[in-house]
Amino acid sequence: MSTSNTAPGDADPAVREELARLRDSIDNIDAAVVHMLAERFKCTQQVGRLKALHRLPPADPGREARQIARLRALAEDARLDPAFAEKFLNFIIAEVIRHHERIADDTVNGATP
Ligand SMILES: C=C(O[C@@H]1C=C(C(=O)O)C=C[C@H]1O)C(=O)O
């Protein structure tokens, strides 16, 4: 393999076509990920409001452990690195818990969520 790089614009037309085709699919997948995350956050916001109203704690470590085990198994089946899947889920859950803490604070302080 050569160590010198070719700018994408200088590559063979067939290579550029293949790259463009793959990038179109990547763009579609990224759009789907964003839409799915937006739907997930809509659900978790509702969970946050329900928890705040009933004085339940923002985090549920038992539920998180079950989700991580489930996601790791799904990742293995799909040939995705399970450590990456776990890191990704933990990143999302941390953001959800931050939202839930804020909703709980706003609820206690009488702000409209
Ligand atoms: C959404 C919830 O709240 C938190 C966030 C979770 C998540 O984003 O999946 C899971 C458990 C909780 O720590 C929940 O309890 O279901």
Describe the overall structure.
It is a single chain. The chain has 113 residues and is an all-alpha fold. It has helices spanning 13-53, 61-77, 82-108. It has a single domain (12-108), classed as Chorismate Mutase Domain, subunit A (Up-down Bundle). Bound molecules: the ligand C=C(O[C@@H]1C=C(C(=O)O)C=C[C@H]1O)C(=O)O. The ligand C=C(O[C@@H]1C=C(C(=O)O)C=C[C@H]1O)C(=O)O binds at residues 44, 47, 59-60, 63-64, 67, 92-93, 96-97, 100. InterPro entries: Chorismate_II_sf, Chorismate_mutase-related, CM_bact, CM_dom_sf, CM_II_prokaryot. It is an enzyme of class 5 (isomerase).
Shape: elongated
Class inferred from helices and paired strands: mainly alpha
Bound ligand species: ligand ISJ
Oligomeric status: single chain
Order of helices and strands: HHH
Within the CATH hierarchy, at the fold level, what is the topology?
Chorismate Mutase Domain, subunit A
The CATH C-level class name: Mainly Alpha
